[in-house]
Amino acid sequence: MGELRDRMVRDMDLRNFSPRTVESYVDQVRGLAKYYRRPPDQLSNDEIQRYCCTSARSGGCRRAHAISSARR
After folding, report:
1. Which domain holds residue 39?
2. Which tens digits make up the pLDDT trace of 11-63?
3. pTM of the model
4. Separation between Cα atoms, residue 5 and residue 9, nearest integer Å
5. What is the pLDDT of residue 54?
6. Domain count along the chain
7. Integer angstrom CA distances of residue 12 from 36, 45, 60, 65, 71
């Protein structure tokens, strides 16, 4: 994820997210990329929502906003 990950972490740092929250969100985005075998910035909002609903049992839907924000 390289540049995208760095930007995501920088944005969360600016918003004073805790280190554990940053780690959790980065892990979720990594899982998203692995699931679709594509970088997160190449996914549609529908794909992101489907992933979040698929991973709802592990708390994925609660992170939908964070994942969508990572694309901005």
Report:
1. 2-70
2. 999 999 999 999 999 998 999 999 999 999 999 999 998 888 887 666 655 55
3. 0.70
4. 6
5. 80
6. 1
7. 24, 20, 18, 13, 13
Q: Residue 20 is encoded by which pair of tokens?
A: 């554990």
Predicted pLDDT at 59:
60
Residue type, 8: M
Please tell me which residue, 71 or 14, carries the higher pLDDT value: 14
Two tokens at 48? Answer: 């992101």
How far apart CA 63 and CA 59 sit, in angstroms, is: 7
- Inter-residue contact 28 to 67 (CB < 8 Å): yes
Instruction: Report the C-alpha gap between 55 and 6 in whole angstroms.
Output: 24
- The residue type at 51: Y
DSSP letters of 22-38?
A: HHHHHHHHHHHHHHHTS
Q: What is the dihedral of CA 9, 22, 34, 69, to 10 degrees?
A: -60
